[in-house]
Design a protein that fits this description.
Chain lengths: ~110, ~110
């Protein structure tokens, strides 16, 4: 069964550094998403992406964040200058044209020190 | 605004006992509803989903959920809990706000005692 993959599984970075989290969505999906889960809290929507542009973003997704689909398979989330409060699990998801169900990746745990 | 409420932060049940996890949603249109399970440090596993049709939906691992429009609820049930069911459970609603997204509840942590 096709699945969403994410790399790395765990990333440790120092405050102020840039990080790029990578995702490979399911190959025939057209909609891509990033979510965040701070330890012990609920999963929060960050951004949705379709047709090479952002469809919707939450208030969390400020100018420090950006997304890109650099090629036909990858979908990336970049945090320009990480803060301690960016430490969280980041989930990528994708959905097909029906959009009703999103398939989540296993997540990348980001630790900012 | 769309929202999901899980009123129980944590629940403890004995192994073999029945389980019901509560979920209420707020959404103006026909909701697309989901239950996910998350073990510590792990990703999200979809247990079941409701889009339309039969209001009682069956999922994996012996779970089921019932959609009640009049109560805006989508409670998760299991007739006999196993120790391996101990995890965090998230109810979620799919919201089409131009850019489709999933809105999660705060989660219910399930503890299973022997």
């Amino acid at each position: 069964e096709p699945e969403v993959t994410q790399t790395p599984s765990h990333q440790v970075t120092q405050m102020g550094q840039e990080v790029i989290l990578r995702c490979v969505p399911i190959s025939n999906h057209l909609y891509f998403y990033w979510y965040r889960q701070i330890l012990g809290q609920k999963v929060e929507f960050l951004v949705s992406f379709y047709n090479n542009e952002i469809s919707e973003k939450s208030e969390i997704f400020d100018d420090q964040f950006s997304v890109e689909r650099p090629d036909g398979s990858n979908f990336t989330l970049k945090i320009r200058s990480t803060k301690l409060e960016d430490s969280a699990m980041y989930f990528c998801a994708s959905s097909d044209v029906g959009r009703l169900e999103q398939y989540f990746g296993p997540g990348t745990r980001l630790t900012v020190t | 605004a769309q929202s999901v409420t899980q009123p129980d932060i944590h629940i403890t049940v004995s192994e073999g006992a029945s389980l019901e996890l509560r979920c209420n949603y707020s959404y103006g249109a026909t909701p697309y509803l989901f239950w996910y399970v998350q073990s510590p440090g792990q990703g999200l596993q979809l247990l079941l989903k409701y889009f339309s049709g039969d209001t009682l939906v069956q999922g994996i691992k012996g779970f089921e959920a019932e959609f009640k429009r009049s109560q805006s609820s989508f409670n998760l049930r299991k007739p006999s809990v196993h120790w391996s069911d101990a995890a965090e459970y998230f109810c979620a609603v799919g919201a089409d706000t131009g850019g489709f997204k999933t809105i999660f509840g705060a989660g219910t942590r399930l503890f299973v005692k022997a």
